[in-house]
Structure formats: structure tokens, C-alpha cells
């Protein structure tokens, strides 16, 4: 049994105000370095992380960036 996500997985990260700060399509696994879509380091705070793929449907979690 494998781990990771399907070839059509999407990661979206939103700030506390609901603004999308990052999005990426990926397969397998993804490492996010704490940067927004313009390449700027995001500030400390609480973020919502949404991951969707064809196999599992999706998952949502809260991320606290220090």
C-alpha cells in the first residue's frame, strides 16, 4: 500500500482572512517552504491548508506558522 497523493493533487493555503497565499499541483509529495505565490516569505500566523486529489477526495488542516 503506497503513500502520497495521486497525479492530480492540488494544495491550496489560505490566510486567516480567507485569501489564497499559495497553490500548487503535484503528485506523490510536496515540500512547501513558507513562501507565497510571489516568492515572498509569509508572516507568522494561522493558515488553512486544503489538499485535494482524485483518490482520497481531500483533507483540510490548520497550520500555525511561527
Question: Layout of SSEs?
Answer:
Layout: E1 5-14, E2 20-28, E3 45-52, E4 59-65
Antiparallel strand pairs: 1-2, 1-3, 3-4
Q: What name does the CATH topology carry?
A: Immunoglobulin-like
Provide the low-confidence segments as ranges: none
Main sheet: strands, sense, barrel? 4 strands, antiparallel
Mean pLDDT: 87
Classify the helix fraction into a percent range: under 10%
SSE string: EEEE
Domain count: the total is 1
Question: What is the total tally of β strands?
Answer: 4
Overall geometry comes to: globular
Going across the biggest sheet, name each strand in turn.
Answer: 2-1-3-4
If you compute it from the alpha carbons, what radius of gyration comes out, rounded to the nearest whole angstrom? 12 Å
- CATH architecture name: Sandwich
Please characterize this protein's 3D structure.
This protein has 66 residues and is an all-beta fold. The protein has a single domain (5-65), classed as Immunoglobulin-like, CATH 2.60.40. It contains no helices and 4 strands. The protein has strands at 5-14, 20-28, 45-52, 59-65. The chain has a 4-stranded antiparallel beta sheet with strand order 2-1-3-4, with no helix packed on it. A hairpin with a 6-residue loop joins β3 and β4. It is globular and about 30 Å long. The N and C termini lie far apart (34 Å). The model has no long low-confidence stretch (mean pLDDT 87).
Amino acid at each position: 500500500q503506497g503513500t502520497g497523493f495521486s497525479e492530480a493533487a492540488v494544495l491550496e493555503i489560505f490566510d486567516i482572512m480567507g485569501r489564497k497565499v499559495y497553490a500548487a499541483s503535484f503528485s506523490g509529495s510536496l515540500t512547501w517552504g513558507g513562501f507565497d505565490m510571489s516568492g515572498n516569505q509569509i508572516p507568522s500566523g494561522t493558515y488553512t491548508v486544503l489538499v485535494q486529489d482524485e483518490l482520497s477526495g481531500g483533507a483540510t488542516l490548520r497550520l500555525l506558522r511561527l
